[in-house]
Amino acid sequence: MLDRRQFLKRSLCAAGALALADVLPPFAAHAAEHTLKITAVEPYVLKGSKCFVLVRTDAGVTGIGEVSPMNAPAAAHLIANEFAALLIGMNPLDIERCWERVFYRTYKQGVMGLQPEALAGIDIALWDILGKVTGLPISQLLGGKRRDWVRVYASIGGGAQSTPEKMAERAEKAVAEGFTAVKVRMDYGPIPPDANVKKDLETLAAVRSAIGDGIDLGYDVNNGYSAHTAIRVGKEIEAFNVIHYEEPVAQTDYAGYAQVVEAVDVPVAAGEHEYTRWQFRDLIEQANPDIVQPDLVKCAGISEAVKIAALASAHHKLLCPHQTQPTIGQAANLHYTAVFVTNDMAQELAEGAMHSDLHTLFTNPLEFKDGRLKVPEGPGLGLDLDEARLKELAG
Questions:
Q1: Structural domain includes residue 100
Q2: Radius of gyration in angstroms for the set of CA atoms belonging to the chain, rounded to a whole number
């Protein structure tokens, strides 16, 4: 929002009394007089599982992005050896053109995972550059935020390997830290299905007892049930007031999803294993989940996630993005969620994420309070990266 002085200066500029460079932020003044160019694309792998991306320009502004941790070293290799050559010399503000160039030139590198995940890191960095050039946060560039703070749930994983008592203890701790919602995550995978349904239900019962009736409870099977079992469990978990039944069947079983959605009253969620607008189109039209879950560090970045939000809106689906990364990925998700999620549904935050040493990479880390994360207010992502610290952790 322009303050009174900025408004006056722009008015004077329109009248010819001031040059455009006197009005715009420093980077924007450069952009107004010259076409910006990408000069370098640098991936950094941290601890073997995190991949951050720096996109540098001839204006001196650098954008930061993040890649899904699923394939971090491979994604870094793809970025350095394929994407960089395609992007250097392009205008970073031509985000859609940059996205299309990378996506279609490297389409055969793995459109069901690696390629869109790597592209996500680039795309997020380009939106960060656009924000820094204009002096606006990404949420403003996307249309304006609905809220300043986004409610998050504690995503508590490893349920298949843990005991019901231990899961309940972790959930209780999350509530003590301020969370108003938790999710039990089993981490099964689709093979073999239906491994230990009795214990799963015992876990949910223990967690609900530990957190009380006033806390929202989600249940993520991680693709672990057959359709028949998912329907039976979906009916039983109503007793625990589960409000979010995530990936109950294999991610490839759209017909099974449709059967579950038709049979149970608990809202069914899916989407973290979809990577493009076309895959989300098929998911929505064939599987018909109640809740759609794009992951910005998987689904080719903010640009593609905006198109997915339009798909969800057109089909009257709830939008609840999937997100496990605590810093850059989470910041991108906060901007996106604040604009496109119309209700106060809690979004994902991995258990312990706010205690990660990755926050030391930033002079202004994300702020957590009373079960919510603050949407960053600075230009772009709103995170100020300490590059020296990044290189130290990348080692």
A1: yes
A2: 22
Q: Token match 């957190």: residue?
A: 211
pLDDT at 110 over 90: no
How much is the pLDDT for 48? 73
pLDDT value at residue 11: 37
Contact at 8 Å (CB) between 237 and 264?
no
Contact 333, 321 (CB under 8 A): yes
Where residue 272 sits, what CATH number does that domain have? 3.20.20.120
Domain membership of residue 68 as a residue range: 38-134
d(CA 67, CA 116): 9
Say which amino acid occupies 76.
Answer: A
Report the distance separating Cα 40 and Cα 24, nearest Å: 25
Alpha helices in the chain, H assignment, sequence order: 4-14, 20-23, 26-33, 72-78, 84-87, 95-105, 114-134, 138-141, 164-176, 197-211, 227-236, 254-263, 277-282, 302-314, 328-340, 387-394
For 370: left if phi > 0, alpha if psi spans -120 to 50, otherwise beta; the answer is: left
- Computed over every residue of the chain, the mean pLDDT equals 92
What pTM, to 2 d.p., does this model score? 0.92
- For the segment 105-116, the average pLDDT, to the nearest whole number, is 89
Which of helix, strand or coil describes residue 54? Answer: strand
Amino acid at 251: Q
> What is the tens place of the pLDDT at every residue in 167-183?
999 999 999 999 999 99
